Amino acid sequence: MEAHDILSRLQERFGGAITGSNLENVDPWIEISPDALFEVCRYLRDDPELRFDFLNCISAVDYLQTDPKKAEKTTWQPHVEVLYHLSSLVHKHRLTLKVMLPRWKDGAQGQLPEVPSVSGLWRTAEWHEREVYDLGGVRFTGHPDLRRILCPEDWIGHPLRKDYQAPAEYHGIKAR
Amino acid sequence: MAIERTGLEWDEFDVRTDELVINMGPQHPSTHGVLRVLLRTDGEVVQQAEPHIGYLHRCAEKIGENVSARQWIPYTDRLDYLAAMNMNLGWALTVEKLLGLEVPEKGRHLRVIMAELNRIASHLVAAGTYGLDLGSFTPFMYCFREREKILNLFEEACGARLTYSYITVGGVMADLPAGWTDRCLAFLDQFEPVVDELHALLTSNAIFVRRAAGIGVLAPELAVSYGCSGPVLRASGVDWDLRRDGDPWYTRMYQGYDWDVIVQVNGRYPHDENYPQVPRAAVLGDCWHRFYVRMLEVVQSMRLVRQGIERYRTAAGSVGQPIKLSQKLPKGEVYLETEAPKGQMGFMVIGDDSAVPVRVRARSSSFCNLSVLSELCRGCLVADVPAILGSLDIVLGEIDR
Amino acid sequence: MAEWLKGYLDPPWLAYLAAALLQCAVLLAVVMTAVAAFNWMERKIAGRLQDRLGPTRVGGRFGWLQSVADGIKLLTKEDIIPAGADAMLFRLAPYLSFCTAFCVFVAIPFTDKWVALRLNAAVFFILAVAGLEVFGVILGGYSSGSKWSLLGAMREAAQVVSYEVPMALCVVVVVTVAGTMDLVAIGKMQSGWFWDWLVFHDPFTFLTFWIYSTCAVASVNRAPFDLPEAESELVAGFMTEYSGFRWSVFFMAEYGSMLAVSILAAILFFGGWNGPIPLAGLLGLTPQHGPVAGFLGELLGAINTLGKGILGVGVMMWLRWTLPRLRIDQVMTVCLKYCIPLAAAMFVGAALWTYAFPGGLILPARAAPTEPAFPLAAAAHNAGEQ
User: What residue in B sits closest to A70 (Cα-Cα)?
Assistant: First the structure.
């Protein structure tokens, strides 16, 4: 099924929850609002003609330009995007979902933005969401066991954020 | 019973005397890298097996945001270092998809040859180390002896034995030296009887069957839900191979090649009359089937290499030209998955009109394959944990990146 | 030997003591050399089976001195005792294994005259002492203070103790057929040509040999039954925390017991010091032709015994490098569900056979020799009676 068909189906069913799309991109993506994410994903997984039963990847992208000269030329506002790449083993089609989030929740530095967890739909999300939380700094509500997966348990900071500063030392080991 | 406090400090803690907490790793002969598996056992029976990863995290994705696309190729080598050609290929194809750059035909066939030879090498390591985990020392040496020959071929082609950085964005680094294809065909000819030897030593060995059949059975729905891919998924009976069903940018490489997807269809594997029969104790989705799928995939890869060499010899033109290091990536996002030996390896690149990407993402097959370990190990014996872990064929380089 | 020494040393107890020490020294020398040779043999066999050469540098083209180099390396290693280990038991454990493994050789005859201690219940003694080896292993695993070692020790205990039962049953089959527990007598019964060997005596002893070989491999913890030392799961099982000399003591105990069960099999089933053809008799190397000839005949017999033992050990090594290892519950299943019933069936069969064909089926059965085990004591007894 083509991306525009999927988009029109979703818009029909969920209306305002579909907040944007880009079908001209090499890999077309559809933007979902965070609150409706779980329901949209459930529909995508269970609808017999869509059957997106395979969650390939969840990633977080931090859009922030730390270089002030380049920041003037950017066309986007600083934000964090969480990307969901889905595919269907049955119908052999692929889809990308995006959720746009503020960099910090309610503008408060250090408070992680929140997205509902889809680990109830695809078990693989358990580990992917842990990684996004660990490195990208996005909290997944409803996740059964959200803790760091790659960094040590007591690590401070979320390394893949563009304004991340690596600590000077960790338990006595010099890091920089 | 009332405890009389006499001013001393009392520590109250729950002493469970029937549960043993054992740490397998991070240094352990059979965890295939620095992996820590926390086992809670009741004697010999495992109640819970929890993998802890991150010991090999080298911040590859963060580095990718600071180097140009071609400069990130050596970092892909070190993801799944046993199948570096496939990692290079995945990233190269992803960036080429973003750029809209098509590699000429000769280069595509060369890429098939390299990717499939590396698949053979990776599966040889998987088979050998799996035998080693179960106590068979000799097939391990035979597998590595054959793998040495493949590594020698790779060394002739690109100078490196393990981390090649050979397949790059735009094509390959350099064309093959003279006589390489003859040596490759000679290797394949002498390798075919070795596969039968390995079948005799492992696949149909009664003790091996007892250790692997019926152990760690993975149901197909669970496999799909956990994102398992590659031989792990196909051994559970799910007919899915990205070389046939994937993104057209990738499947175009394999167009016109004659090969079989190794998956059990209607109770039979393709051309299984040439190989040992499935033993009665083996259940679809168990360790034995995962091992068997890899052994049969080796033979299919040999077919692909032979066809690739033929086509490479008759193709005209160049093998492609690597892009300039300063080549700017256009605005856009691309996610592409390829069928690496261990499963589906996905790369994502987000470009923003500069040579350095905004975001680089590597989605590794072993990451998802390992996540199913806790499900598979529930209720098995401690001795089965290396058997199950070995059959999942993970490599920590790509899990931790 | 004690009697010979009595002629030179005055107090009789000194003669016996000197004899005992001398014999122990000779045995230790023989067995330690054998163990060193097995180390080399194992590495060469492993290498050749794995399509590579094995040691080729130390001591010439075939690496003859590799064992010596290994021994020197192990002796010079740092002696590490883990902090959580029970130090006294940790130190004691290897020696316990070692001593019991070597004590077995005291009762094993290399020829009918060359035996340190001729017991008329030699078989019983050997089985009993070999069973003590498991204490060293359990202590080693427990005292290491590591959960992995503990697991290895528990598995070892279960395995070795269980496999003693079918091993003893197999040995009892031979004792039933032979009518005596005296190993020297059993060996003498098989003198002659190779068809006189007990393994060809009746189909039951033939099958018993195969069951015995399985149980013997299991009771010395060799592959495919080497789970207690499973490298890939438990690092080295109960031996994980042992390094240097202490490890080499455990390792010598293992090779020593491998040789012991092989030689036991050789004596019980394959005629011991009697070769396939009665070469000593044909060449005239018997005591009737003078002491030198007698000595050479004995030497030939000893070479036979040792050779058969080494062949058995070589087969065990071959198995180790070819087969994967069984899981502990599969090991116990093989013991309890297959070996014990089969061994018991063999025992019943052999007993019925000797009852049905007391004179032997094809060849005349040999009666157990009636000479006493301790000739001097018997002579003294007889003298005392008169």
Answer: B354
In chain B, residues with a C-beta closer than 8 Å to the C-beta of A83 are 333, 335, 348
- C-alpha dihedral (C224, C225, C226, C230), degrees to nearest 10: 80
- The conformation of residue B214, written as its DSSP 8-state character, comes to T
Residues of B in contact with A87 (CB under 8 A): 337
B137 touches chain C (CB under 8 A): yes
For the record, the structure tokens of B306 come out as 């032979």
Q: Which CATH class name applies to A3-66+77-174?
A: alpha beta
Q: For residue B141, which residues of chain C lie inside 8 Å, CB to CB?
A: 50-52
Q: Which of A64, A127, A163 to mutate to test the interface with B (most CBs of B within 10 A)?
A: A127
Q: How far is C159 from chain B (nearest CA, A)?
A: 14
ipTM value, please give it.
0.90
Q: Enumerate the residues of chain C whose CB falls inside 8 A of the CB of residue B201.
A: 322
In whole angstroms, give the CA distance from residue C130 to residue C164: 9
Q: Which residue in the set B54, B62, B363 is minimally distant from A160, CB to CB?
A: B62
Sign of CA dihedral B55, B61, B67, B73: positive
CATH topology (fold) of B20-400: Cytochrome-c3 Hydrogenase; chain B (1.10.645)
Other residues' Cβ atoms within 10 Å of the Cβ of residue C359: 8
Domain extent listing, chain B: 20-400
Kindly determine whether residue B334 and residue A94, on different chains, have CB atoms separated by under 8 Å: no
DSSP state of B174: S
Given a contact cutoff of 8 angstroms between Cβ atoms, the answer to whether C185 and C271 are in contact is no
**Local confidence pLDDT in tens for the 401 residues of chain B:** 455 555 566 666 655 566 778 787 777 766 578 888 888 888 778 888 899 999 999 999 999 999 999 999 999 999 999 999 999 999 999 999 999 999 999 999 999 999 999 999 999 999 999 988 888 888 999 999 999 999 999 999 999 899 999 999 998 998 999 899 999 999 999 999 999 989 988 888 888 998 898 888 999 999 999 999 999 999 999 999 999 988 999 999 999 999 989 988 888 888 878 888 888 888 899 999 999 999 999 999 999 999 999 999 998 888 888 988 888 999 899 999 999 999 999 999 998 888 899 999 999 999 999 999 999 998 888 888 888 999 998 999 999 98
Residue in chain B lying closest to C222 (CA): B135
Mark which residues 292-321 of C lie under 8 Å from B by CB. Answer: 320-321
- C339 to chain B, any CB pair closer than 8 A? The answer is no
Which one, of C241, C213, C284, C222, lies nearest residue C89 by Cα? Answer: C241
Give the 3-state secondary structure of residue B381: strand
In chain A, where the domains are located: 3-66+77-174
